[in-house]
Amino acid sequence: MTALAELLAHPSIWRGGELGRVASPSVASGYPQLDAELPGGGWPTAALTEILPQHEGIGELGILGHALAALSAKGRWVAWIAPPYLPYAPALQAAGIDLSHLIVIRTRSPRETLWAYEQALRSQTCGAVLAWPERIAYAELRRLQLAAEGSATLAMLFRPSRCITEATPAALRLRLDTRPGGLAVRILKRRGGVLGRTIALTPPQVVQRNFDNPPNGLDCHVMDRIEFPASAARSLRRDFGIH
Q1: DSSP assignments along 143-183, one per residue
Q2: Does position 4 have pLDDT exceeding 70, yes or no?
Q3: How many Cβ atoms are within 10 Å of 198's Cβ, its own excluded?
Q4: What distances in angstroms separate CA 36 from CA 33, 42, 224, one per listed residue?
Q5: Mean predicted lDDT score pLDDT of the chain
Q6: Which domains does the chain have, with CATH numbers?
Q7: Is pLDDT of 183 > 50?
């Protein structure tokens, strides 16, 4: 192999009109039209992903349902760091997510949230880590991106739409908007050529209904806690230094 061929084979390098290569296997999103436009054919692991919904509650959690269900089915932990709303257990179960592998971590400050997020990535025990930072500096994002690169984890950040003009080291960045019957996804940044069109998604009805419009008029504050087995609690204490 020539020196040029070896250089082009590196996962951090790609030709302008191609999708980038991945060094760590991706996780299918469950939406073929989206996976076709993502390097590796799905949500990237070992990389930071930012999701910027037009506003809260448009299906930003439902878009991850398939991937989180697949990870939990393999026995991987799914960590939610300081979610803005209490998770709605029936919705998660309807999406196929195993609640015995779901960990919700409550924090007392934005700084503590970022610390917990970084520790979850570095622990090597989580299949996915989700957080909702209101404000986060570029240097902090860079630190999280480096932590993500050292793990085989889905590192997902949900950020307000006002952050769309801010620079970010994240490998993947998506804008979510509503459309009749589903969502419109705009890929703002990816490792590969620029995508100049919007991707229309129609989420499975059970996921969309339960995540965003729970039955019987219940909202996402219904559940006060998620019970998980003692093994998960021990893992949480060991990996995050909690006593």
Answers
A1: HHHHHHHTSSSEEEEE--GGGGGS----SEEEEEEEETTEE
A2: no
A3: 14
A4: 5, 8, 38
A5: 80
A6: 26-237 (3.40.50.300)
A7: yes
CA distance 147 to 63: 24
pTM over 0.85: no
Burial 134-157 (b: 16+ CB within 10 A, else e): eebeeebbebbbebbbebebbbbb
Cα-flanking dihedrals φ and ψ of residue 240, to 5°? -110, 5
Supply the DSSP symbol for 54. S
**Which residue, 196, 211, 208, 185, is CA-closest to 33?**
185
Which residues lie below 8 Å from residue 98, measured CB to CB, with a gap of 6+? Answer: 69, 72, 73
Q: In the chain, which residue ranges form alpha helices assigned H by DSSP?
A: 3-8, 32-35, 65-73, 89-94, 110-122, 138-149, 205-212, 230-240
pLDDT digits (tens, 9 = 90+) for 70-103: 999 999 999 999 999 888 899 899 999 999 999 9
- Separation of CA 114 from chain center: 15
Cβ contacts of residue 200 below 8 Å, gap of 6+?
33, 179, 182, 183, 184, 185
- How far apart (Å, rounded) are the C-alpha atoms in residues 125 and 135? 26
Tens of pLDDT along 27-72?
Answer: 999 999 999 999 999 999 999 999 999 988 888 898 999 999 999 9
